[in-house]
Structure formats: structure tokens, C-alpha cells
Automatic annotation (TrEMBL):
This protein's UniProt keywords: Transferase
Xref: CDD domains: GT_2_like_d (cd04196)
Name recorded for this polypeptide: Glycosyltransferase, group 2 family protein
Keyword Cell inner membrane among record annotations: no
Source species: Paraprevotella xylaniphila YIT 11841
Alphabetical list of PANTHER family matching this protein: GLYCOSYL TRANSFERASE FAMILY 2 (PTHR43685:SF12), GLYCOSYLTRANSFERASE (PTHR43685)
One Gene Ontology term of the molecular function aspect: transferase activity
Family matches, as InterPro entries: Glyco_trans_2-like (IPR001173), Glycosyltransf_2 (IPR050834), Nucleotide-diphossugar_trans (IPR029044)
Highest taxon listed in the record's lineage: Bacteria
Protein's UniProt keywords contain Coiled coil: no
Pfam entry (one): Glycos_transf_2
């Protein structure tokens, strides 16, 4: 039976935490253990974790409040070695075959870094289904640089990918899952997307990161980033270059260099008119090219 270490970050999660823990304990077909980092909770979350640890269900430790991205990264850095790893939010509910289904996708892919992620089923606070955002990624490196769509709560990856991730900690990391996906794509890892959801992705007022099925909401968020001059894509590309330039697939290395220097006339024209940054979501493709045109990429 394959061993999976589930990594969970908590922060003031007392309302839904126990329900999520039960769904993790109920995973079938895998040898599942759980490591939790509490990100400075002030409610009863730490008491719940202490009780669960006392009952032998998990291990946990406490850290200062650094936000979800750095909290999950700290977990990744401090986790004991395992064959497979998975991330978990504190407020979702997993199907009992979530991890088993993910591992079945890998097949015999054990000799190279490998990453799985999947579709989510949006639910409200009471687990009633909501319209979900359906994604159909191209799974290209150019799309990864352009479009941040991967959900860390669905991720499962092997120790070989973790070893690559441990080689470099970026200064700029908007979210841990986006960074991990981008590194995997840059290095030419085996990457799989599962369009069948195995997770009830709860939407509520306390979500650290939610997924609202609203085009208006998503466009407002993009425009807000432009107003702040937050050049997310080129910042990520620069970090990828700093950490992995010598390990990248050659064509990915060339594209990364071009993105870092996208303000130069030749690179700008090439990125806007070419197909290297094409996305399954055409609106994102258009918006990204506009960001390049106005030096906001």
C-alpha cells in the first residue's frame, strides 16, 4: 500500500476542521498520515489539533502567522520524507477515494518528478453543490506562466518533485500551489490533470482563497492587480530563472528569459503575436497579452 503524507495548514479553522479531518482519516486504499502546521490561530483550532494528536490521528506544530503560501511552504520544508505528498485545506471534505484515485493516475511514473491535480466541486457552507468553475488546461509551460488556475488542495506529488522544490525557496511566492506547478512544468515533470472532482471545495466567508464562479468577480480581480502594478507573471518567471535556469527544459529556459525581458521590443512582439503563452482560457490569453503590451506583465 502506497504511503501518502498529507500536509495541512490551519488558521482559525475550528468551524469546519473536524469534518475535514474525518474525511482524511477515511481515505481508502492508501497508507495516509497527516502533518499540520497551525499559522497562529486564536480560536480553538490548536485545542482541536492537540486532542487529535493525543488520540494518535495526526502530528502538528505551531508557527507564527505568515499566511497560507508560506505556511504550506514551511510544511513542505519540514515534512519527513515520504513516497507521496498531498496538500489539504482545513475546511473542505474529501471523497474517500481521493488519494487512491490520484495515485492510480501516476501508473509506473516513479522515475521522474510527478504532479497530479484535479477539478473541484464547489459547495456552500452546508456542502450543497454550487456551479463550479470548469477548467481544461493545455498543460503547457507557457500556459503555466500566463494562467494561475491550479488548486493546491487537489495536489498530489512524489518525493522526486519535492526534492527539486527544496533546492530553492523563492522570495516572491504569491501562492505555494502556483509556484509548485510552475516549477514542475519548467522542469518537464510528468503532470496530470483529472477532470473528475474528488473534493468538496467549501466556499464561505472565511476562505483564505476561494473560487467564485463569477466572470465579473474574476475580471475585477485582474483589473485590481493592474491598478496595483502587481507584475505577477514576470515576477514568478524571474524566480524560476533564479532557482532553476540550469535545470529547465531548454525551450522553457528560452521562454522564461523572454518573459523576464518582455519589455524589450523584439520579445514583446514575439510574446504578443506568437503562441508560446496560449491558454485554454482565451480571455486570459487576451488579458495577458494586453498586460505585456502595457508593461504590466
Amino acid at each position: 500500500m502506497k504511503k501518502v503524507l498529507v500536509l495541512m495548514s490551519t488558521y482559525n479553522g475550528q468551524m469546519y476542521l473536524k469534518e475535514q479531518l474525518v474525511s482524511i482519516y477515511a481515505q481508502k486504499g492508501v497508507d495516509c498520515t497527516l502533518l499540520v502546521r497551525d499559522d497562529g490561530s486564536s480560536d480553538c483550532t490548536k485545542q482541536i489539533l492537540a486532542e487529535e494528536e493525543k488520540n494518535g490521528n495526526l502530528r502538528w506544530y505551531e508557527g507564527r502567522n505568515v499566511g497560507p503560501a508560506r505556511s504550506f511552504w514551511d510544511l513542505l520544508l519540514n515534512a519527513p520524507k515520504c513516497e507521496w505528498y498531498a496538500f489539504s485545506d482545513q475546511d473542505d471534505v474529501w471523497h474517500e477515494d481521493k488519494l487512491k484515485a490520484a495515485l492510480e493516475q501516476f501508473g509506473n511514473c516513479v522515475d521522474r518528478p510527478a504532479l497530479y491535480f484535479g477539478q473541484t466541486q464547489l459547495v456552500d457552507e452546508n456542502l450543497c453543490p454550487m456551479d463550479s468553475v470548469k477548467i481544461h488546461p493545455l498543460l503547457t509551460y507557457g500556459e503555466a506562466l500566463m494562467y494561475q488556475f491550479v488548486g493546491g488542495c487537489t495536489m498530489v506529488f512524489n518525493d522526486k518533485l519535492r526534492n527539486e522544490l527544496l533546492k530553492y525557496t523563492p522570495r516572491y511566492m504569491r501562492m505555494h500551489d502556483v509556484w509548485i506547478y510552475d516549477v514542475a512544468m519548467a522542469l518537464g515533470a510528468w503532470v496530470c490533470f483529472d477532470d473528475k472532482p474528488y473534493i468538496l471545495y467549501r466556499q464561505h466567508s472565511r476562505n483564505a482563497v476561494g473560487q467564485v464562479n463569477s466572470s465579473l468577480f474574476r475580471w475585477r480581480e485582474r483589473i485590481g492587480r493592474l491598478r496595483k502594478n502587481e507584475r505577477i507573471r514576470s515576477s514568478i518567471a524571474r524566480e524560476l530563472w533564479n532557482g532553476y535556469a540550469e535545470l529547465m527544459v531548454e525551450e522553457h529556459k528560452e521562454l522564461t528569459f523572454k518573459v523576464i525581458n518582455y519589455k524589450k521590443c523584439f520579445n514583446k512582439v514575439s510574446l504578443i503575436c506568437g503562441h508560446e503563452l496560449d491558454c485554454a482560457n482565451h480571455f486570459v490569453s487576451i488579458f495577458g497579452r494586453l498586460s505585456i503590451l502595457f508593461n504590466l506583465f
